[in-house]
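Please decode residue identities from the backbone states below.
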């Protein structure tokens, strides 16, 4: 079978046309995903406490509410005492929650590297699992206690400053939420 002599010029033109078509399609797809809110990887508005989605009964600048919790032995814990006048990120999480796992993998000392000037406290129905897996303080909280605060999305992430004031609330885990954000707004 004879080998055909192809023109390299035609091949290069076709390759360039194919590249332009693929790149154009990717660009249009990213634009549509960003414009419609399907993806927040290119967040057009800055992430601030006011732009976080808050579907709870908690409000910014309110005093941290009394929430019934218990330690792993079932003993009642007063969360105001657990906060101990320190800047704190409190997260309501659940075992088996993929968004919770993504948040904890990035935000716990093992995932974030530690060294921040705030503490982390998890409120969950299975605190022992999170203590063992992530090495953070965790307390048991009941579903009725979560319902009292309107917490129905997991993870729900709450910033409490050293004076016990709620500084941010996020129902869910935006991909752009970082330890730098927590440090900035836990004042």
């Amino acid at each position: 079978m004879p080998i055909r002599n192809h023109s390299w010029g035609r091949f290069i033109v076709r390759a360039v046309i194919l590249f332009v078509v693929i790149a154009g399609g990717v660009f249009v797809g990213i634009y549509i995903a960003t414009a419609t809110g399907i993806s927040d990887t290119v967040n057009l508005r800055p992430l601030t406490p006011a732009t976080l989605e808050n579907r709870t009964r908690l409000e910014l600048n309110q005093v941290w509410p009394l929430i019934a919790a218990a330690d792993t032995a079932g003993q009642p814990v007063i969360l105001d005492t657990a906060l101990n006048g320190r800047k704190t990120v409190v997260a309501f999480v659940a075992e088996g929650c993929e968004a919770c796992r993504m948040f904890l993998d990035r935000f716990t000392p093992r995932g974030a590297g530690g060294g921040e000037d705030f503490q982390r406290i998890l409120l969950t129905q299975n605190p022992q699992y999170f203590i063992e897996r992530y090495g953070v303080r965790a307390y048991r909280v009941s579903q009725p206690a979560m319902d009292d605060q309107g917490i129905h999305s997991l993870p729900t992430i709450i910033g409490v400053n050293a004076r016990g004031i709620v500084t941010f609330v996020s129902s869910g885990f935006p991909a752009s939420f970082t330890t730098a954000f927590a440090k900035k707004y836990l004042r």
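Observation: The chain has a mean pLDDT of 84.
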